[in-house]
Amino acid sequence: MQNLLDAAMTAARLPYPALAEEIRRLLADASVQVPERLVQPLAGGGSLFVMPACDSRIAIAKLITFTPANAGSGRAAIQGDVAVFDVATGARIGLLDGPTVTARRTAAVSLLAAQHLAPSAAGPLLVVGAGAQGRAHVEAFAQGLGVREVAIASRSAASAQALSAHARTLGLAARVVEDPHAALADCPLVVTCTPANAVVLRARPRDDAFIAAVGAFTPAMVELDAGMCRDMAQRGRVVVDTRDAQHEAGDLIQAGLDVSSFPTLGEVLRDAAPAGRGPVLFKSCGWAGWDLAAARLAVRQGEAG
């Protein structure tokens, strides 16, 4: 594996369908160890994330900053790297672009969840939030689910138009919508990937809706209205990415729901229980295990190349 990979090289090693499959394999790997991440608040509202993980072959440490104030400034909100080490020798064998890994593994987790949980996986897809995560989710759902139509909502009209234009380069029928609540009636697939500083969805979703909410990863952050979360828990099913959601899933915590009662993605995949009726809410908060899966795939792709 080439030791230092920039954003483009990192992306080339992490095709979305293969990454979703690697995440599924990681969830079944008993050698995986993922301690709780360290989140250090920074002056000005930013955060420093230190996220280690390992399996029997490689160890990783993701070191990134998250700076919400960079939105609209031309500077990336997420910056940093993922260092990859060989467990047997201790040698560093790779350095991946942190923002690229974060965007692609988050979208791949949503893709994996949608592949197994979405009642109507063909779309159309509604994406609320037109930043890096919005772009990654459009790409992932197009490649992994065959979605051909996407509606995009964003507080920034320029960002929404830019993502819509990108979606059209992928061969998708794309449109910008001003009211995401109205678009819920037409879209069984939904992704919310905003800065999570305010509610962006509150309308009642379709009975066959699958919503991946990825923006909120602290108890104070929120994208989905509390009543909407309670309604989906009552009418359908709520699944969280990991047990860490118990103290991170702001949408569910603020809705007063017992987060510990909801199954994790890994538990759902292991149990292979038949899908129930009603809408599905997949709450994703992030986990260093997803970064480890990306590193595993990148290493294997490098060895094959």
From TrEMBL:
<dbReference type="GO" id="GO:0005737">
    <property type="term" value="C:cytoplasm"/>
</dbReference>
<dbReference type="Pfam" id="PF02423">
    <property type="entry name" value="OCD_Mu_crystall"/>
</dbReference>
<dbReference type="InterPro" id="IPR023401">
    <property type="entry name" value="ODC_N"/>
</dbReference>
<protein>
    <submittedName>
        <fullName>Delta(1)-pyrroline-2-carboxylate reductase family protein</fullName>
    </submittedName>
</protein>
<dbReference type="InterPro" id="IPR003462">
    <property type="entry name" value="ODC_Mu_crystall"/>
</dbReference>
<dbReference type="InterPro" id="IPR036291">
    <property type="entry name" value="NAD(P)-bd_dom_sf"/>
</dbReference>
